[in-house]
């Protein structure tokens, strides 16, 4: 059930001998038995979560480079026009993917707020990743 392209995130699963499906070690060895289908679904979710973390890390690497370039060019940390276009684009993608567009917008706004915070720190000569 792991999406194509996310295989690299799958490193800690084991095979359930009964069903032949991937089961995370913690679910295969701890606590009361859970149905194999639930274990498989949870394993898939865990893999997707790991992929999301890696994708977000790559996104933030790119936005840090953007922030440094904006600081060099004396551009503002925020670009409201681009943000508006991105929200509209991602709402459309969310709709096409069967994801609530309002949720996608909230998620993007959360990410953009953090990016702007990073860009503001860079513009001040501060480390954007400092706590």
Task: Please tell me about this protein's structure.
This protein is mostly helical. The protein has 2 domains: 1-62, no CATH class; 76-131, Chorismate Mutase Domain, subunit A, CATH 1.20.59.10. 63% of the residues lie in helices and 3% in strands. It contains 4 helices and 2 strands. It has a two-stranded antiparallel sheet with strand order 1-2. Helix 2 packs parallel to helix 4 and helix 3 runs antiparallel to helix 4. The longest helix has 37 residues, at 36-72. The radius of gyration is 20 Å and the shape is flat. 8% of the residues are buried. Mean pLDDT is 85; it is low at 1-17.
Helix content: 55-70%
Helix/strand structural class: mainly alpha
Counting DSSP H or I runs of 4 or more residues, the number of helices is: 4
Share of β-strand residues: under 5%
H-E order? EEHHHH
Record the strand order, biggest sheet. Answer: 1-2
> What is the number of independent domains?
2
Bulk shape: flat
Instruction: Please give the oligomerization state of what you see.
Output: single chain
Radius of gyration: 20 Å
First-last Cα distance? 37 Å
Total E-strand runs = 2
pLDDT under 50 segments (min length 5)?
1-17
What is the average of the pLDDT values?
85
């Amino acid at each position: 059930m792991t999406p194509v392209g996310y295989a690299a995130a799958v490193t800690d699963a084991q095979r359930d001998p009964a069903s032949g499906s991937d089961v995370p070690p913690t679910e295969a060895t701890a606590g009361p038995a859970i149905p194999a289908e639930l274990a498989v679904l949870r394993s898939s979710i865990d893999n997707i979560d790991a992929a999301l973390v890696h994708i977000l890390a790559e996104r933030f690497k790119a936005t840090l480079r953007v922030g440094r370039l904006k600081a060099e060019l004396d551009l503002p940390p925020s670009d409201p026009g681009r943000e508006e276009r991105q929200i509209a684009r991602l709402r459309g993608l969310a709709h096409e993917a069967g994801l609530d567009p309002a949720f996608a917008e909230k998620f993007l706004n959360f990410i953009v707020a953090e990016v702007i915070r990073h860009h503001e720190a860079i513009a001040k000569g501060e480390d954007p990743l400092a706590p």
